[in-house]
Give the backbone structure.
Amino acid sequence: MLATFDLSPELRQGVRPGLEAALSALGAEPDLGDTGQVRAMEQFGDNLRRLAQIEADRRRHPEIAAVAIDRPVFILGLPRCGTSLLHALIGSDPAVRTPLSWEVAMPSPPPDAATFEQDPRAQAFDDYVAANFSGKWADVLKAHPIGSRIPQECGMILETAFQGLNPVMLFRLSEYYRWYLQADTRFGYEVHRMWLQHLAWRNPRRRWVLKVQEHAYHLPELLAAYPDAMFVQPHRDPVTVMASISRLIEVIRSVSFDHQDRAKLGHELLHLWHDGQKRMMAYRKAHPDLPILDMRYRDLAADPVAAVRAVYDFAGIEFTGASEEGVRAWLVANPADKHGRHVYSLEDYGLNEAQVRETYADYIAAYGEYL
């Protein structure tokens, strides 16, 4: 598969372990139908295509490698804790840089500030969403906003290095997940940095704000790439979190699996996300000076403007009139039920409150004041 793409020997060597792990896991996944197998191979090919485009542009414009990434802010924590909302609100500030969905999907040529608002790739992305997020996938939009100018998670960047969790979310791939837990993902964060330099080269802002929950699994590797990184961690009752994320992943996988065992899915995700929090808590205990802002989901939901302001104060970003105007405009344009109500129940996934609280007892003990 690698032979199809024009990648340097260094990138081939970096990609190969994760790609081989993903391909091996794909062949061992018993419930993934023929459609799912095809979709996975298409996804893997798209990852390599986008990485090859990034590298090709870098060869043509070696000055991209000199772009500085100063004190990036990473939003992380459990899923369904308001992280996407917070990321989108901050992304509405014209002075702050977040990776937008269209430019991560179609990165070449590098985005240019002069044409950024009119770039036809944005409309192409929205056309794709309109054509594909219907039928089985319609419920995705109820839980997770998708659009060309909505900030994209780092997962779609890390998967181009085959050192991220997206293959697990889309196709389960249990063997790949076990490999990912043990992997040294420094290469993934080197690729991540390449992406940020690429996107910022002709369209820079004062600061980067990034987001994805899987950063919690590999903080040492992240900090090797970004030693001046800062972190924000919203918190929410894991009982609500597990019900909501189980429904979202069920919908996401519905186009690839002919049948899904809901109880099996619930048990998988219960422990998968706890794996990340165990690592996060251990790292924070060992590094109490880690610059991190803990935040209550309920505070974010009650007063989004104040929550964004708190992030800015923590990170040393100026909260201007334009910042507040962007946040308020985004809230008006994106009400919580814009695409319908996201409905979920723990019992649908073979779980109950006692199971969740037992599994997350360490997390609840550590962050009870924020739940």
